[in-house]
Amino acid sequence: MLRVAMPNKGALAESAAEMMREAGYRGRRESKELVVVDQDNDVELFFLRPRDIALYVGSGTLEVGITGRDLLLDSGAEAREVLQLGFGASTFRYAGPPGVASSVADLGGRRVATSFLGLVRNDLSDKGIDAEVVRLDGAVETAVTLGVADVIADVVETGTTLRNAGLAVFGDPILQSEAVLIRPSGGGDNPAVDVLVRRLTGVLTARRYVMMDYDIRVELVEQACALTPGLESPTVSPLHDRGYVAVRAMVPRSRTNQVMDELYEVGARAILVTEIAACRL
Ligand SMILES: Nc1ncnc2c1ncn2[C@@H]1O[C@H](COP(=O)(O)OP(=O)(O)OP(=O)(O)O)[C@@H](O)[C@H]1O
Ligand SMILES: O=P(O)(O)OC[C@H]1O[C@H](OP(=O)(O)OP(=O)(O)O)[C@H](O)[C@@H]1O
Ligand SMILES: [Mg+2]
Asked: Phi/psi at 213 (nearest 5 deg)?
């Protein structure tokens, strides 16, 4: 049975659970459930603290897990990313009161509060900066007001928390994070993991693409297909009226309306867009 580490709470938990449900796996019946056995899919889901997931996977205790890239790197665990999951995007950044620092180079001898000790220590040492790192569990933005630190390093999504604390980012982002599927670094082939990766890739594709159908005169089909090349090649089918063909192709969801406008200009009619419920590429 494939054993999967899932975030039990926090910013990634709901989207991770939703994605696994869309991929056909059983979900939790209530939020306190710690282990879900999905006999039909031969999978066992362990709901763990997001911060602990890289440790379970890195040690090989669990074969695969969903966590944030920042948490993976912070942990120093022997695990690697196998798939980017397209949710939970954030940046990890330094921030401080205006005027305190304008780049990481200004941090020598300063106190940096963070709950990502490994990440910040590595970044400072890579840049040759000797600063004191103050480890906190959360709400690190308040550490500056309370005088525990001069600056902070933390997850920034909308920037609202920073603004409310009167802090501003400085320097380059330490990293861009998002939710990722991870495996043990040295792990060899595992067909059950391959199935999970294919299912999740299917969910990502179904979210990123729509199916587009249209009719077009035969002599214009090449021009139209150039606008809708599909993933491999569009399906072109004859219509009862031999002067026309029907074309079917996957189109990036974000371009749906532009592509319809362009197709209409070329002469396509009866342009229909449908959702992709599930797919395997
Ligand atoms: N707005 C956000 N706030 C916090 N973490 C976020 C946000 N957006 C994405 N993430 C990602 O979620 C992960 C943090 O998970 P965590 O469970 O600590 O979330 P949390 O919401 O901070 O929960 P907790 O209540 O335990 O602090 C990191 O990988 C982080 O990059
Ligand atoms: O840029 P924003 O959209 O404001 O989001 C980022 C904030 O959200 C998280 O805090 P969380 O609510 O998880 O509290 P914590 O700091 O105690 O983990 C994170 O630690 C930042 O503080
Ligand atoms: Mg948090």
From this structure: -120, 145
Among all ligands shown, which has an atom nearest to the Cα of 157? 2
d(CA 82, CA 95): 31
One DSSP character per residue, 123-141 reads HHHHTT---EEEE-SS-TT
Fold of 209-275: Alpha-Beta Plaits (3.30.70)
**Residue pLDDT, tens place only, 187-232:** 889 999 999 999 999 999 999 999 999 999 999 999 999 999 999 9
Q: Would you identify the CATH topology of the domain 90-176?
A: D-Maltodextrin-Binding Protein; domain 2 (3.40.190)
Nearest atom (ligand 2) to Cα of 154: 20
Q: In whole angstroms, give the CA distance from residue 229 to residue 195.
A: 27
CA neighbours closer than 13 Å in the CB half-sphere of residue 9: 6
At the topology level of CATH, where does 2-87+178-188 sit? D-Maltodextrin-Binding Protein; domain 2 (3.40.190)
**266 contacts: CB under 8 Å, gap ≥ 6:** 216, 220, 223, 224, 227
Determine the distance separating the centroid of ligand 3 and the alpha carbon of 150, expressed in angstroms.
20
Q: What is the pLDDT of residue 281?
A: 84
